[in-house]
Write a structure and sequence with these properties.
binds zinc ion, 7-stranded mixed sheet, two-stranded antiparallel ribbon
């Protein structure tokens, strides 16, 4: 057991990290995941076994207990192929936090209150320690939108933004609702893409199908009431607001 600013952390060991250490100035973002497995035990087994080639820095279980699998100064293998703003390969520049949740495949459940309050505590500590910007708290689906959907639409981004963990828009849901499903022009599609790039999303060249996937990732994070991959006025209004904070 170790203590980090009065937070109790249980040490485990995962061999799944790069042998070369990084400087603390390389840590610029936090990536949130869910484990997406049947049980906590299975998740820990996978994240600590050398054959899986995956890991994370921290894991928070359903009762809010924190485990550390890889030290911050080591690059854990949690994000895989990923992009965000100027960052390519987020493993290099981020800390990965896994939340125990069965995920969409095995029965996606709401995150537990205790799990989230522990996450807030941990994020606050890391934010201060590494001077991480508020806007750089992201979901795995934000940085790998073509492959990943975790931590999913049940993750409470709006609540976290009140704690200055991640950004959120300034609108009330009653105002936004009027614009849901309202069609946009071709010009507005172009504008939306530009706004998303300003926020940090990456559009691979020549892949027309990726637009819907990236729009879905955006919705999963910022407009969870309707995740259909179709751009509407509501998404455009939200993106415009967020781009100003990015
Ligand atoms: Zn993930």
């Amino acid at each position: 057991m170790i203590y980090m600013f009065f937070m109790e952390i249980t040490k485990l060991y995962s061999p799944n990290f790069n042998s070369k250490k990084r400087g603390s100035n390389n840590i610029a973002s936090i990536i949130i995941h869910y484990t997406g497995m049947q049980s906590e035990r299975e998740s820990i087994e996978r994240l600590t076994s050398s054959s899986s080639k995956v890991s994370c820095h921290y894991l928070i279980n359903r009762s809010g207990k924190v485990f550390r699998l890889v030290e911050d100064k080591n690059m854990a293998w949690h994000a895989g192929k990923s992009m965000w703003g100027k960052y390519k390969n987020l493993n290099k520049n981020s800390i990965g936090i896994e939340l125990v949740n069965k995920g969409h495949q095995y029965g996606y459940a709401s995150f537990k209150k205790k799990q989230i309050s522990t996450l807030v505590k941990l994020c606050k500590i890391l934010k201060k320690k590494y001077k991480i910007k508020t806007k750089n708290f992201l979901g795995h689906s934000d940085v790998s939108p073509l492959r990943k959907i975790d931590p999913g639409e049940k993750f409470p981004w709006e609540f976290l933004s009140i704690k200055k963990i991640g950004i959120w828009h300034d609108f009330k849901s009653n105002f936004l609702k009027k614009y849901r499903k309202l069609k946009v022009s071709k010009q507005e599609v172009k504008k939306f893409k530009k706004l998303l790039i300003r926020i940090g999303y990456f559009f691979p060249k020549g892949k027309t199908k990726s637009f819907a996937r990236i729009t879905k990732a955006f919705q999963r994070h910022f407009r969870k009431e309707l995740i259909n991959g179709t751009l509407d006025k509501e998404c455009l209004i939200i993106a415009d607001n967020l781009a100003k904070k990015s």
